[in-house]
Amino acid sequence: MLTSQVFDTTGSPALVSVPNDSDGNEVYTYNFPFTTRAQWKARLPKETLPLPSPVPYVVIHHSYTPAACYYSEECCQSMRSMQNFHMNDRGWWDIGYHFAVGSDGTAYEGRGWGILGAHALHFNNVSVGICLIGDWTNAVPPVRQLKTAQALIAAGVDRGYIKSDYKLVGHRQVRQTECPGDALFKEIQNWKHYSPFPASVDDLPEVIQLGK
Which residues form the N-acetylmuramoyl-L-alanine amidase domain (predicted)? Predict the structure, then answer.
């Protein structure tokens, strides 16, 4: 069982229990707002596979669409929209990302810790994928969105899901795509663990691709 920190209507922090089957009865406390799959009314995954942890990479994405969301209800709808697109249109087992972060400063649980994602082909087996909801081609996400993304990564390190010496990359470094948008990609190059390698998909070694 996880315990994550959310904020009540007064702006004060409040604790909520978050089930996580991979951790047994261990209790965690997040220092940022967190919304579980149950809270955003996620569909059940068609299937899951474990992700070997800790992973050496974190991959940053933007959603492009849906657009940036600034309120909980709006962001929950964005999560359902992305999950439906990934499952119905792309035929994946679930929403592709491990987590998403809204412009409301809340982290939204996607596949979650310890589950193989479907966010970066040929790189899923060695990474956690975090999507910053919105189109960040021409504008940088709000500070609270960036801070929560960074805090979420730090939590993954603390929990043993991400290596302490992990490398942070943008989606475009491991896939032919403009994701995570020019502005956000430039921003994450200032983050402590950013790695310029791999510079493109051509730098990737052969990796056995599992799951969807």
Answer: 44-181
Nearby residues of 11 by Cβ (< 8 Å), 6 or more positions away: none
Give the global pTM: 0.85
Residue, of 194 and 207, whose pLDDT is higher: 194
Task: Answer whether residue 23 shows pLDDT above 60.
Answer: no
What does the pLDDT read at residue 115? 97
Strand partners, 29: 3
Rounded to the nearest angstrom, the gap between the alpha carbon of residue 179 and the centroid of all alpha carbons in its chain is 14
Residue 154 to residue 141: CA distance in whole angstroms: 19
